[in-house]
Each structure stands twice: as C-alpha cells, then as structure tokens.
Amino acid sequence: MNLSASSLWLIPALPLLAAAIGALTPRGGRSLASGAAIIAMVGALGLSVAALGTALAQPAVHLTDNFTWFSIGTDAVRLGWLLDPLTAFMAVMVSFVGLLIFIFSLGYMKEDANFTRFFCFLSLFAAAMLGVLVANSLLLVFVCWELVGLASYLLIGFWFHKPSAAAAAKKAFITTRIGDLGLLLGMLWLYHVRGTLLFYDGGNGVLEPSSLALLSHGKIAGGIALSTAIGLLIFCGAIGKSGQFPLHVWLPDAMEGPTPVSALIHAATMVAAGVFLIARVYPLMLADQHLANVSVHALTVVAGIGAITALLGAAIAVGQNDIKRVLAFSTVSQLGYMMLALGVGSWVAAIFHLLTHAFFKALLFLGAGSVIHAAHHEQDMRRLGGLGKRMKVTFATFAVGMMALAGVPFLFSGFWSKEGILHAAHAWPVSQLPLVAGLIAVVLTAFYMTRLVAEVFLGSPRSDAASHAHENSPVMTVPLVILAIGAVLLGLIGTPAWPWLQSNLGGVVVPAESIFEGPGLMVLSIVLVCLGLGVGWALYGWRKRRDAFAPDPLAAAMPGVFAALAAKLGFDEFYALTFGRLNQLLAVVADGLDRWVWGGIVSGVAWMGEALGTFDREMDESGLNSGFDAASEKLRGVGNAYSRAQTGEAHGYLRTLAVAFVVLALLLLLGGVL
Amino acid sequence: MNLSFALIAFLILASAVLAATRRDLIHSALLLVGNWLGVAFFYLWAGAEFVAFAQALVYVGAISMVVLFAVLLTRRTRTELPLLVATRDRVVSAVLGGLAVFGVLAVAVLRTPLDINPAKPAASVSMLSLGQQLMGPHAAAVLIVGVLLTVSLLGAVVLASSDADGKGEAP
Amino acid sequence: MNLLQACLLVSSALFCIGLVTALSRSNTILVLLGIEIMLNAANLNFIAFWRFSPAGTAPATGVIFVLFSIAVAAAEAAVWLALVIALYRHQQNIRLQEATRLKG
C-alpha cells in the first residue's frame, strides 16, 4: 500500500471530523460519538500503515508536499506535509495505541454522563497529535502543538466540578505554556534568520545543509552558535511538554483526569511529542557538534537535563502511594531516558524507546485503570491488595508491562530499547555521567515497579473495595492483552541481531556492532535489574503489608529520605513560594496601575468633560441667556419709551403735528429750498 | 378792488377769532356761519361764482345745521365747567404754536417771488365748461366722491346708532 | 406785497386761527369747527392761486378742486356728527381730553 505525501493530511483530518461530529452530538448520542471516533482512528491507522509502506520503500528520503498558506507582499507563509520513516512509525504507533485506548474507554467511561464529550475531546486530541507528526513546517507543528495542549487541558479537567481537577488542568496548561514560550521565540528567531519555517523544501528548508551551515556559523553573545541558541529555545518547548526537569511538576497532577486520558496523553503520545520534536529537528541540534570554539553544545544541555530527569523521576516514584502517581513519575523518568538518548547522539535509540514505552506505559495505565474501575476508584496502594487472584487478566498483563518497564532481559521490548540508550550513553565522548544516572535509574525503576505490583496485586485485600473487586468486561481486557503482546513483540524489531527499526528510521543500514559493542554493559544492566527486583521483593513481596495504616518498610529504614521523596522533593512548594509570589506581586502592581493610574486618567478625562460641560452651561446661562435677556429688556424699555408718546389725547397729536410742520418748514427755509 | 378785499378779509378773520373764543357753543356756531359767508364773498370777489354758491349751500346751509344738531344733541347742563389749569396751559401752548405756524407761513409767502399779473384777471369759468370738465376728465373723481359721500353717511348712521346698551340719552 | 400775497396771508391767518381753535378748546365740537376753519383756509388758498394764475393753464382745475373739497367737507361733517354723538353716549360729556381710551 502506498500513500503519497500530498494525501498525508487525511491522517489527522479523520479524527478531526470525528471530533466535529462528537461536538455536535447531543448527550444521548453515545454510539454516534464513540463510533465516529473509533472509525476515524481505524481509518487513520489504515492510512498510517499505508504511509509506512511508502516511507519504508525509500527510508532515506524525506517526501514532502508544500503549499502556500498566505502571502503578504513579497513574503509568503508556506506549510507542508512530510513523509519519512519517523513520521510513519510515530503515526502508526499513535493511531494503534489510540485505537486500543478508545476501545478501552467505551467500558471505562460507560457510567459517566459526559460520554460524548469525552470522545469528542479524545478525537480532537488524536487529530492534533497526528497533525504534529505529519507537519513539514515548524509553524504547523506549533499550531498542532498548542492544540494538543488544549486537548490535554480539556481532558485533564474533564471532571471540572472537582476543584483539584480544574486546578490540575490549569497547572498543566500554564506550565507547558512556559516551555512553549521558548519554542515560540526559537521559531520566530529561525524565521527571522532563514525566512522560512519548512523543514525540507528542496534545498531551502531549515533542516537542509545550506541552512545548517548558515546557522552553525552564526555567532551570538556568550560564545554560542546561532543554531545552538535556536535549538535550545525549541528544546524549551520539549522540556515543558515532555515533563523534563524543571517543568515536570504538571505531570503528576495531570493524573486527575480519567485514566484512559492518562494512558493516551500522559504516557504514550503527548508527552512523547517533545521527544519527537527534538528528533525532528535533530539536524539543527547536531549542527554545532563540529564546532570547537563554542561555550556549550546544544545536545550537551539536552543530555544533562534528560539524565537529571531520569534520576529524579525514578527517585520520587519510590515514595508515592497512589498508583497513578507512581506511574506518572515513572513516565517522567522514562522521558528523561529518551532525552538522554537524544543528547548523547542517538535519536534512533530515543525513538525506539519512545515506541516501546508507548506500548508498555499505556498497558500499565490501562491496567491501573482496570484496577481502579474494579475497586470503585480506590487509587491508594496501601488500601488495595490481593487483586491478583481476583483479576487474573489484568494481573497478567500488568505484570508484562511491569517487566517491560523494569527492563527484564531478552523477552521484553523495554529491555532492548533501554539497552540501546545505555549503549549510546556509554559511547558518548563528553562524559559518562548520564550513563551512571541511567544505571541508577534502572535499579530504582525495577524497585518501585516491584513495590507497586506487590502492594496492589499480591497479599490480601486491605479494604472493602479491594475485596469486592472483580475482573472487568472484555471491552476493557482485550486492549490490555493486545498491548501486552505488542510490548513483547516490539522488542523483536530492534535487537542488535536484527536492527530493522534502527536501519529504517535512520535511513542508513545500521550494522549490529554500532549498537552493541559487547556484553559488558548488558550484563551490568541485567545485574542491576535483578538487584532492584530483589530488593523490592524482599521489602514488599516477602513481607506483605498487613493493613493500610502500617508504615512503609522503607520509611522505617530511612525516614528522612522517604519523607522527602513522598513529598515530591518540594518542587511545587518551591515554585509557589517564588514564582507564585512574584506573580501575585505583579498582579497587585497591575491592579494598582489599572485602578489608580489608568482608571485615574479615565476619571480625569471624564471629570474634565464634566467640567467643560458645566462651564459651557454657566457660560450659556450667564452669558448668552443674560445677554439675550438684557437685550430683550432694553428693547422692551425702548418700546415702553415709545409708547409713552401715545397719550390718547387728540390735542396732543395735533399739537405735535403743528410743531413738526413748523420744524420742517424752518429746516426747508433755512436750508434754502423755500 | 382792494377795499372790498380788505372788508372781506376783515369779516373772515374777525368772525373766526370771535367764534374761537366764545364760551357759548351756539354763539360760536353762528359766528362761524358768518365766517363761511365771508369766504363765499371772497369766492365771488375772486370770480368763482359757482364755488361761492356751492360754499353757501353746503357750508352755510347744511353743515351749520349739522353743527347745530350736534350742539343741541349733546347739551347736558347749562352750567359752564371751570377752566382747568391744564386747559390754560394748553391754550397758551396752542397760541404759541399757532403764532409759530403763522410766522413760518408768512415768511414763506413773503419771501417767495410770486409772479402775478393783477391787471389781468383769470377768465371766469363758464358753467358749461365746468360741467364738461366734471363729466369728462374728472368723471372718476366725481364718482368716487359720490361713493365717499354714500359711505360716510351710512357709516355715520351706523356709528350713531350702534350702541346696543342704550347708554346715555338716545338721540 | 402784491394782492396774491395778501390773499395768501389772509388764508394763512385763517389757518392759524383754525389751528389755535382746534388745539386750545376742550369741547369736541369746537375742535371740529376749528378743523372746518382750516379746511376753508385751504380752499381760500386754492381760489387765490386760481384767481392769479397765468392764462393758458388749465382754467378750471382750482375750481374743481375746491368743489371736491367742499363735498368731502360735507361728508366729513356728517361723520363727525355721528362721532360726537357716540362720544357723548359713552362719556356723557364731550370733553376731548377725557377720550383717552387709545392711550398706549
């Protein structure tokens, strides 16, 4: 099957249409909304597979279809669609995982009154995410990026009458916005320098050699190259969206949304968009690698932040008691791994891990959703237990996901993808610190996942909800099984024995040696995984928790550290104290300005207008009116004076006549007429 | 010529002055009749016979009757009203005014070089020519005067009889 | 002073006597008689000029004028008779200075 680049827009268009149908469907039209969403996703999946076929035929080529959106004067804003292996693999993953989660939601959200709204938003999200993937222009990516953020806000705050959910949605949106500001600045700067935002445009795109040469040679203040600066600004967007340190604080709170939302958005797809973005603009990030006299390389920063995040996420996950919080911090940690991979130079390893992570993390979240649904929304680990006997399918698939995440060797995809990252980190010439951080995180990951599984599924039920739980309907368990199969099989295409994925992603055939220099590191990581599993079993699986109020064994061992981890290392409180207070201060200043300065000016103008009016009125009344009145009085006075001549006496009139005649005659006489 | 003129002039002026100053209205009216006769004599002296007859007929015959009727109809009492101060002032100012007017007129008359030929009196106007003039070029004026007379007499009748309340003595 | 001027002086004197009569007497009838005197004086003037006018001018104009003047004087006399009667009916005497209803 083939799909040309010019028809690529159909892939996001189908879910968008489903979203429109969902928006117009009344609350009772559940089948219509969900049916449209699922059919759209099936269609998108089919088209994505066709696109994959096209891309695999020529893996090294970027097929594009560009068009002009609008032009102003001589400048034109051009957009386009891009088809290459990266796009195709990501699109297949998003539509496949998305489809499974949509089907899962049919069962999970059955009792919810806002069923149609949920599917409308889900479709919108799917459309936006697919749009990010197929875009050939940084501008188009940004537009769909923001739409993805909007869909995330709508879905996190789906149960908006819960104050915590509404607050979490706001927090997610604002935090990612901070990152997006950097992305916007980078975008604008890039446009200013290059005049285009298309990635590949027959030689003129920003990721093509001519642009890269230009950008890497431009220098700005501080001794860093232009491409480094722009790349780091774009990376800011990825930091926000992918929950990297220091903007990771929104991801745990985002668990307020329904669990399918957590699975789709905050595990498999949206948070991976940041990783995808960096992978997409990787040539730009690489552009400064050959320069020796710069103060910092872009990828070094990426690697550093990724390493910190990986370690941080794993550590905090150890101290959490809510199932979804553990999984959320686990996501943060795994995203850190992906950024680490990008930073040390292997974007292929990062994308491979992204694909496998999508499967097993979605599986884990859906499994958690199954547990929560069965236990009537009980999410605290300490109050669950013994669910393994009661929910066998969920337990089995959850265990598969856990082993994939922890990196249990050979059978599970997570092992192979993580190995790829560790090998790339080992091969990094700059520093081995990311490798060390990654290895420590391997231990912690195995440890906290064992803790989670032991507390939830093993032992005996520690609450009524747990004891009454039973397996869910097939509409919820079948997707779990499919994802579990995928979590296992996906590893097969990326092993060193057959690096099919790596070769096709990168476009060059990758020899086995480049991703596997020897068993040393692999053995080390296997040992660490076993260490983590062992300690976890010892603490939580061997001596099972008896009741919900018993303290955590780790808390007994190291109370201070555990308390700090349980409190998420205080990031939220720190931000509230600093940035929160600053924002409040600015708000107070703005309010004061508004009320006293601008309001004062407006009032002043109004007062002046009033004064002018009063002055006018006074002038009118005193000046004009009085003037007119005085004139009228004068006239009346004159009239009165004249009327005094009308005495009514005939004698008087006659006398006047006679006198007048005399006067006239005298005048004429003396004037010389007579 | 001059003697008759002087006599006529004396008659006219004396009767006028006397008529002006009498207290009794009947005396004034009768003296005025003498004045009008004098004027008629003057017309005869001047050679305008028809006008003299017209003057005598109209003034002496009709208008004096009208005056007498008016006097008799508006008589209230025989007592004479006292002379008010205002009346005396009015008389003084009237006399002064009259003298002023006369002065002006006299000066005007005397200073104008009037060109006459007294030796050649104007030809008398015959009745025939007068009739022809009246009925010819001045016919319109005759008609108008006829209308005027009719209107004024009718108006006088209306005026004199229009008091609906019947205040005062009915004539 | 020729004869014409003497005639004119006489008529002027008569006019002034009539004016004085009209101005000074308070009896309405006497005021009206004064007016009649003035009219007569004017007529005298006309005839005097007619008498001494040069030959060749329209011979009858002065006479005709005076005729008309006498006719109008007759009409006027009828009207002032009615006026006096109305005035007497209104204020029971015929003092002119009491008829000031038209005072403005």
Topology, please?
The complex is a heterotrimer of chains A (674), B (171) and C (104).
Chain A: H1 10-24, H2 30-57, E1 63-72, E2 75-83, H3 85-108, H4 115-134, H5 138-156, H6 163-194, H7 209-217, E3 219-220, E4 224-225, H8 226-241, H9 250-253, H10 259-268, H11 270-280, H12 282-286, H13 298-318, H14 323-343, H15 347-374, H16 387-390, H17 392-406, H18 413-426, H19 433-457, H20 464-467, H21 474-489, H22 500-506, H23 512-515, H24 519-542, H25 553-557, H26 559-566, H27 571-643, H28 650-671
Antiparallel strand pairs in A: 1-2, 3-4
Chain B: H1 2-21, H2 25-46, H3 49-73, H4 85-111, H5 127-135, H6 139-161
Helix pairs in contact in B: 1-2, 2-3
Chain C: H1 3-24, H2 28-51, H3 61-91
Helix pairs in contact in C: 1-2, 2-3
Molecular structure report:
The complex is a heterotrimer of chains A (674), B (171) and C (104). In chain A, the strands form two sheets. A two-stranded antiparallel ribbon of chain A has the order 1-2. Chain A has 674 residues and is mostly helical. In chain A, helix 10 runs antiparallel to helix 15 (347-374) and helix 17 (392-406) packs antiparallel against helix 19. Chain A starts with 9 loop residues before the first helix and ends with a helix. Helices cover 72% and strands 3% of the residues of chain A. Chain B is built from six helices and no strands. The mean pLDDT of chain B is 84. Helices cover 74% and strands 0% of the residues of chain B. Chain C is an all-alpha fold and 104 residues long. Chain C has one domain (3-98): Helix Hairpins (Orthogonal Bundle), CATH 1.10.287.3510. Chain C is built from three helices and no strands. Chain C has helices spanning 3-24, 28-51, 61-91. In chain C, helix 1 (3-24) runs antiparallel to helix 2 and helix 2 (28-51) packs antiparallel against helix 3 (61-91). The radius of gyration of chain C is 17 Å and the shape is elongated. Classes of the chains: A mainly alpha (674), B mainly alpha (171), C mainly alpha (104). At the B-C interface, helix 1, helix 2, helix 3, helix 4 and helix 5 of B face helix 1, helix 2 and helix 3 of C.
Structural class of chain C: mainly alpha
Indicate the low-confidence ranges of chain C by residue numbers. none
- Tell me the helix content of chain C: over 70%
Radius of gyration of chain A: 38 Å
CATH architecture of chain C: Orthogonal Bundle
How many β-strand runs of chain A? 4
Q: How large is the count of helical segments of chain C?
A: 3
Oligomer: heterotrimer
Low-confidence stretches of chain A: none
Overall tally of domains of chain C: 1
What helical percentage do the residues of chain A reach?
over 70%
Strand content of chain C: under 5%
Tertiary shape of chain A: elongated
Top CATH class of chain C: Mainly Alpha
Q: Termini of chain C, distance in Å?
A: 48 Å
Q: What would you call the shape of chain C? A: elongated
Class inferred from helices and paired strands of chain A: mainly alpha
- In order across it, which strands form the biggest sheet of chain A? 1-2
Which sheet architecture does the biggest sheet of chain A show?
2 strands, antiparallel
